[in-house]
Amino acid sequence: MIIKQPSRFIKQSQLIPQLCILRPRFYSTDLENLKKESDSTEFDSSASTTGIIDKKQSEVLLYFDSIYAFATSKNLVLNYISRLELPFRRKVNESKLKSKVEALSSPTPADSKITDFIPLRRDCGAFVKFQYPKEYTAREFIEQIRKNVIANEEQKMDKNPLLKLTNYVFDVDPKVFSVKGVPWIEDLRRFPSPKISVKFEGSALTEEELYVLFRRYGLINDIKIESPTEAVIWFRSLRSAIAAKHCITGIELNNGKTVLHIQFIRIKRTNYLTDFVMNHTRIAVPIILALLATFAVLIFDPIREWFIQFKINHGNTKRFEHYKQNRWFKLIYVPYRTIVDWISNSYDYIDTQFHDMTGFKDSDSEDGGSSIMEMKNENNMFWQERNEKSKQLKLWILENLNSYIIIKGPQGSGKEEFVLDHTLKLDDKLNKRILVVECDELSKARSENNLINNTASQLGYFPVFTWTNTISQFVDLGLQGLTGSKNAALSESKETQIKNMFSLTTQAIRHITDSEYAKYVKIIEKKNKRIKNDDEKIEILKQDDFLQQHPESKPIIIINKFARKADIHSNDFIYPLIADWSSGLIQNNIAHVLVLTSDVGSIQHLNNALPNQVFKDISLSDASMKSSKQYVCDALKISDTIQNQSLDDCIQPLGGRMLDLQSFIRRIKSGEEPNQAINEMITQAAELITTFFLNNTKSNDVNWQPSQVWLIMKLLSNKEDVTFAELIKNPLFKNSKETIDTLSTLEKFDLISLKRDKGVLNKICPGRPLFKAAFKNLLHDTRIWNLYEIDYLTNLINIEITKINLFESELIKIHQVGNKLDGRIDYLIKKIEASNGKIVNFEKEINEIATGNSKHKTFLGIPY
Known about the structure:
By secondary structure, this protein is an alpha+beta fold. Among the domains are: 49-185, no CATH class; 362-483 and 495-619, Rossmann fold; 687-858, no CATH class. The strands form five sheets. Strands 6-7-5-9-8 form a five-stranded antiparallel β-sheet, with helices on one face. A five-stranded parallel β-sheet has the order 11-12-13-10-14, with helices on both faces. Helix 24 packs parallel to helix 26. It is elongated, with a radius of gyration of 49 Å.
């Protein structure tokens, strides 16, 4: 009977007999014919091979769900995992599952048995085919099995209350259902879903009919008729959908006019986070990036801080001795050292016997010892003049009062060796915690990534990810496209990144002082525990008082090659940043700061950072001739008592500059004669001057004229220094402000050295004593003299021509006004005549130089 127009008023008891009229059958017609045709030549026709379960007239097919321990998941990943044979999973074979089903179904009627068992691991269930006795109908037998399953489960839960609670919460007790259709057993990648698609072959069913048919398997959320040939049923639980699919698919209704085919529908779940990001990019993207940045900081900043502390604490030569004090290291190191000593002692015995028999001595060890003694003697002789300054530097650090110390001196004067090797290295208290920051490594960086890498290397900042800068720029660009905002600026500037690196270094230094204070507190507390009398117990100092009384507990920060401006203009922010950072260390009383500089103008950065601080400074000059000669003699193993006029003459141009003395010694050791070595050094210095200072006029860093350099060379070739007042008499240096800028630039590149008196520029000296000899070398070269002297005189002529033009333009204005300013007119005429006279003299000198008849004359007392 077909229900053509189902009424909503028909009772459910009337609808079920009309809907579920089933005729005895085993397959749908198409499947039966297809299976018979395909199985005609096959031996294996089981369900695992064909996907169809054969059933005889005296057999019933039941579906048992939830007989596997591992429940079916809605998660696709877990569905895949459930199909894997993982090593930690308990093995469940078919025989165990079959025994479990038999136990659930018992007691079964006599002459009944399980004739086939098809497990469905993916769905956590199984098809079980029973042969039932003749005295039972199929309905009675199925009802008996269902009652047995319920009774056995209730009995099991009564024995185990925890199992009962689990079943109440998760509903995991097995159930049995009668298979009404033709199940299709497939192992395709179609994982179970609470949503199933019901396709009608023939006449369609209404929502009421579908509800009656599927409600027995579980609660239904919704039923939708998608089309005349398909409906969608959404079960509340996944378990119900699986049971309905296996029991109903292939069922024939309405006298064979309707066949149902059921498949799972994958549910498309909504990801609210993804939707929020995609629909609210202006809000979501900055939040996500901020969270990622915070997450990265929480992970990497402690690691970076540890590496910075490691560089400060173990950056000296005694870092291995630090580990030897650790008890766990001793546990491993002492047995190892003992074995090594046993082996080495045995070798020593063999070597001793061999030496005794042959009379052979280890010359290498003797030479090594002598060289060490010579090095010590050499250092002591050369640094003898600076012993008092070294003691003063140590005293200032140990006094721990405003320990912001500036060590000044020209380039090559050995400031770094003076501080590190001859002051701190020899003191066991002060050489434990040292951080050296090479400022020139930062100022020379030509790219942002290079700057960040150099800064990280100086501070011990690790790990550092420079590639994130490029990614941040792309993120900025993409965010601007998504949000439409041009001011996204999520990527940090290099100034901000460098500042953050120094801030983390401050935090690491703070942790070092905190750990030292914690050690002190722990020691005092141990001592106080041994003292019974409370009056005799030691008072624990506050941290600031402890650091004030124990200066060795604070790290020493050495800022080397501090300058006023960076080599790369975009890096000029570095020096003010370092000044602010170091001043913060002093103000917080967590470090000593030593600034090594050859640029006196750089102190302005320090004054700006600490305006109320009076800096302690030590000035290092070149060594005296006596110490220089002693140094060279010790290095060359020559007795300084021998009068060697040739050597004295060679050392004289070097002027005690350690960098040049070392270069001179290396040349002599390489086989050159002293005269040859010093001449080569002078020639190289002269070539450097002509290449960089006289010919390099196209560089962006150049703000001087070759004629100005030439004039300074002539002035300093016969004098130790020239006063600033004398220099500005020359027309090339009339503008004081431009003159100071030019001289500062030349000082930066080490051509000259500026001496100041109470902060005011006073004298100009050669940047290196060797440059004085190089100046003379260039001035005595006729070809070079003619070339640059003509350029110098030409510039003077241009200056005078400019003056005449100004005077003439003023005379024209006076004539146009018509005022009779006879005094002013006479003044201007005299000025024009004076300038014209100078031009005549300059042109005469140029002609004499060109014809080779020039004689060195003077202008304002200056030889040219």
